[in-house]
Every structure is written in structure tokens, then in C-alpha cells.
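2024-03-11 09:14:02 INFO queue: dequeued item LADA_0F02014g1_1, len=299
2024-03-11 09:14:02 INFO validating residues
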Amino acid sequence: MNLLDQYLSEEEEEEVKSKAALERGIGIRDSQPRLKPLPDQILDKYHISPNIEKYSGEDMNTIARGWTSFAFVEMRPSHRQRLQIDSLVHTVGLQLRSEIGLEFQPLHISELGSPLPLHVSLGPNFSFQTSQELNAFAQMLQVETWQKMNAPFEVGFEPILQIYDNVDRNALFLALDVSQSVKNSHIRRLWTAVQESLDFSRRSDECAASRCAWTFERSHMSIARAFLKPPSIKAAGGHTSAERTLDAQYRRTIEQLNMLLANRPVDRSVLDSLRFQCSGIKLTKQRSNLWIPFGSDTQ
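2024-03-11 09:14:37 INFO prediction written
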């Protein structure tokens, strides 16, 4: 009988194994649960599209609110990159606040503290008259991208930060300019793909002005935003003497801020840490993001 007592029943043995496995799972070395990252397809389907108020005014939004599209290169900052951007926005934001009294808030994190992607735009927010035009644009952009881009490339940035405004002139954006070499090569080819796809989709001329207003030379990635209170005059204004005076003051403020930033270049080590690999572009289409990989990207 004493010999039999040394053996566990089947239920007791299973309980011991489960307890041991549980203890191993919550050991000191693995105190934090490790979850697999969500697939890009899930993130694109349920993720909120980039803030495109910067690229589309009130007039454009009323033309064809139901059929719009926005092409961009997306950056999903790593934990280290988010820390670098936090520090950069905090340091530069303090300097700008002392100059103009505006509070710049980072764009890579939501009000609830969750991480958000950043982006380099490939044009303004485009409006379409019909869903057929939007579908034609999206299909042709895939073809043009596959033909013009056959390999991933690395996105780097210039050391001088820039201030940009939006179409409605109610906010200022602190941005990193894309490096000149990337602008003149990869971004230029992507911009050309977007323009040729727009021409193919035979859009009406109502938004032709917005199509021509943006060029690849303005390629940048906004990292912080400050709202203007009260809002400045609209871009379409400036007819009266008072409006022209306000417009001149508004432009002078942006120039002064950019001159201030020109004397405070970003450290090279920070710029190197913010580089990221681009293997495709994204397109907003019917409240979701369409992923368009480059020709050699089979993912």
C-alpha cells in the first residue's frame, strides 16, 4: 500500500502538469504577455484613415463628399521612434510656444494614448464624381505603381524642420521634410503614378486646381499640429485691404517660424533613427485603406 501511495492518479498527475506549465508561463523572465502583432489587413480595414483636413478645404468636401481618395506612404513608428518624436516635439514645441503662443500636439499618439501611424502624402485629397471614377483611379494606380516601383526604398529626412499650414488656414503643422534625394527619385515616381492615374480616371475639372497645387517637392511628414485661435483667413480670401493685410501677417508668421527652425537643425542621430523602409503605398477607398505593394513585393 505504501508503494501505491507514491503514484498519482491520472487526475492528480494532470493537475500537477497544468500547475507546472502555468508557473513556467508566468515566470520572472516572461512576466509580460506577448501578443502577436495584428496583420496589416486588419489594421487597414479598421484603422482610421490619415487626417486629411490639411489637404482638403471646406469647398472641396462639399463637392463630392462620398467619393474621395488619398494616396500616401505610411510610417508606423516603433517604440524607440515614438520616444524620439516625443522628445523632438516637446523640445521644439516649447521654443515655438514662446514665439507664437501655440501648443503643438504630437500626431503619432491619440488623445487616449494609443499609437497612431504617420504619413507622407502623395497629393491632396482627391474628389470623384462617381464610384466608377474612384474604382478606375484605384485600379490604374496599382498598375502604375507596379510598373514604376520594383523595389522597396528607405525614407529619410532633412535636418531642418518646417512649418506648413492647411487649406483652411486654421492649423499649423510641424513637419520633417523628406530628404531631397528621396523626393527627386522615389517620391517623384510615385507622384507621377498618381497623376497619370488621375488622368486615366477622367475626373471632372472641378478639383483640377487642387491637383496642380501639390507637387512632390513639398513631400514631408507632419509630426505635430497646433490649431489657430481664432482661425486665420481662408485661402480663397484676400480681396479686401484688411484681408490682404491679414494674409501678409499670416505668411510672415510662417516665414519667421521657419527661419527660427532653420537655426535649430535636428541631430543626425535622431534623423537616422527615424528612417523607415517603404515597400508600398496606401490609398483610402470607401472608408478603408487599400495596400498597393511595389512590383517585387509579394506580401
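2024-03-11 09:14:37 INFO annotate: Residues 25-30, 56-64 have pLDDT under 50 and may be disordered.
2024-03-11 09:14:38 INFO item closed
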